[in-house]
Design goal:
Elements: H1 7-58, H2 64-70, E1 77-80, E2 86-89, E3 106-110, E4 113-122, E5 132-140, H3 142-193, H4 210-260, H5 264-294, E6 303-306, H6 307-324, E7 328-332, E8 338-341, H7 343-359, E9 366-374, E10 377-384, H8 417-427, E11 431-437, E12 441-447
Parallel strand pairs: 7-9
Antiparallel strand pairs: 1-2, 1-5, 3-4, 4-5, 6-8, 9-10, 10-12, 11-12
Helix pairs in contact: 1-3, 3-4, 4-5, 5-8, 6-7, 7-8
Bound molecules: adenosine-5'-diphosphate.
């Protein structure tokens, strides 16, 4: 897999490379220009020296040869006889064989060295036939011409500029991307802790840039979602409250009807009313419990409870329905297995799991409930050899009102049992997980 490269690094790399290319281009332009300017000035210099010597010679001033020999200002000039024989001035072995050319400054390259050469002819003093050739020569050393400062810029300032660009750029992008880290952290916190009240931290002095706006917008969206969830919880809570009394009345009246019913048909109808009322009443109790836990209103009495006793009570309460499917219920809890828990809530969670083991168990199957200590934690396992849960459903069974399929679910299943178990166990700061093999059985493991 490719190693991920952060946006910060990519941006920094991009403009550092761009900066590098830019600096190189600018340097080459400046270098080329200054080289050309230097050549021009060398040419001018040589022409000037040659012209001055020519003037002096043409005015027949005496001592011109001495001047050329001794004066610093004519150090690049030499004088030759018309046949090219050297007389006086700068003697340069390299250029001595280059033919003379009247009045044209030119660049000659000899053995890797560059020279500017300028020749001119002068009649010379009277009596001298053919006159003289005057030659000006100056060597052109490009490194020298570019100048020391250019070299210093290349060797020291460029790496320094690039380093500063990279560091400064990285620092600025890192700071600019801080809100993104905050957004990711908040999103992770919300999904890990299931706490929708968390918000993206925004520093009071934060700059109002695009990411700041994004954080503010996301916070507003989280406010809305939190409100909606609160409203939904409140609705569930209110609706279940409102339904509790009427359903109790229906149940009581149904039971009364069942008592006084004479004929078979009446009895059957009254029984149907009682069954359905019981089912709805159970559903309402579960919804109320879930709503109370959601809104942190559930009374929670943590005390030392004996798991042997709780498991026995749970099994006892489920014996009758187990017997109807000839399912055997076993318990395996070592004596003195004590846990810190709310007795009635834990009893209700374990009973629920046993009830599922029976509901989704095979005829003549079994359900085993075991408990043991894991250091200072307690492990409770409810395992059956029933129909099992297909793999693709296993993560969804904890969702409220989720049922695997309609075929396996009888009319008494609501899809709320496991979400209630999960809420109860999480209220204890514990975890509950399911392991299942389709067709072979299911195991629920609680750790509190
Ligand atoms: P329900 O009231 O439908 O039983 P639950 O929340 O208890 O709701 O269970 C959700 C779904 O998970 C059920 O519909 C059932 O299909 C599946 N399920 C739960 N426990 C078991 C089990 N022990 N064996 C097989 N399937 C199970």
């Amino acid at each position: 897999m490719k190693k991920p490269v952060s946006i910060k690094t990519r941006i920094t790399l991009w403009y550092t490379t761009l900066m590098f290319v830019l600096v190189l281009v600018v340097l080459f332009l400046i270098g080329g220009l200054s080289y050309q300017l230097s050549i021009d000035s060398v040419e001018k210099d040589v022409i000037l020296q040659v012209t001055q010597v020519k003037e002096k010679l043409s005015k027949r001033q005496p001592g011109v040869f001495e001047i050329v020999e001794s004066k610093e200002e004519f150090k690049n000039v030499s004088i030759y006889e018309p046949n090219g024989k050297y007389i006086v001035g700068q003697y340069n072995y390299d250029i001595v064989n280059i033919p003379f050319e009247e009045g044209i400054p030119r660049r000659e390259s000899i053995d890797g060295k560059d020279y500017i050469i300028y020749d001119t002819r002068t009649p010379g003093p009277p009596g001298m036939r053919g006159g003289f050739w005057i030659r000006g020569v100056e060597s052109v050393n490009s490194t020298m011409l570019l100048g020391r400062s250019a070299i210093i810029i290349m060797l020291i300032i460029i790496p320094l500029i690039l380093l500063l660009t990279a560091l400064g750029g990285y620092y600025i992008t890192k700071k600019a991307f801080n809100p993104v880290n905050n957004i990711v952290k908040t999103a992770n916190d919300i999904s890990a802790q299931k706490d929708i009240s968390k918000r993206i931290g925004i520093a009071p002095d934060a700059k109002e840039d695009e990411l700041h706006h994004l954080s503010v917008t996301l916070n507003k969206m989280l406010d809305k979602i939190e409100n909606l969830i609160k409203q939904e919880k409140q609705f569930t809570s209110d609706a279940s409250h409102e339904l509790r009394t009427p359903i109790s009345v229906i149940l009581a009246q149904g039971e009364y009807l069942l008592d006084i019913a004479k004929g078979e048909k009446e009895k059957e109808l009254a029984q149907a009313i009682v069954d359905k009322a019981n089912q709805v009443s159970k559903l309402i109790s579960r919804l109320l419990l879930l709503a109370r836990i959601d809104q942190n209103r559930q009374k929670f009495n943590k005390e030392k409870v004996d798991l042997g006793v709780i498991v026995d009570v749970a099994i006892e309460s489920m014996k009758e329905s187990a017997a109807q499917k000839e399912i055997l219920l076993f318990s395996n809890v070592p004596e003195g297995t004590i846990a810190d828990a709310d007795e009635s809530l834990l009893l209700s969670a374990i009973t629920n799991l046993i009830s599922n083991g029976i509901k989704y168990g095979k005829e003549s199957g079994r359900v085993l409930v075991s408990a043991s200590k894991l250091g200072d934690r307690t492990e409770i396992i409810v395992a059956d050899n029933g129909m099992g849960i297909p793999e693709e459903h296993i993560d969804k069974i904890w969702t409220r009102f989720y049922r695997v399929d309609d075929v396996r679910n009888d009319e008494y299943s609501s899809g709320l049992g496991l979400s209630m178990v999960k809420s109860i166990i999480e209220l204890h700061g514990g975890t509950v997980a399911a392991k299942s093999e389709f067709g072979k059985g299911t195991e629920f493991r609680i750790v509190i």
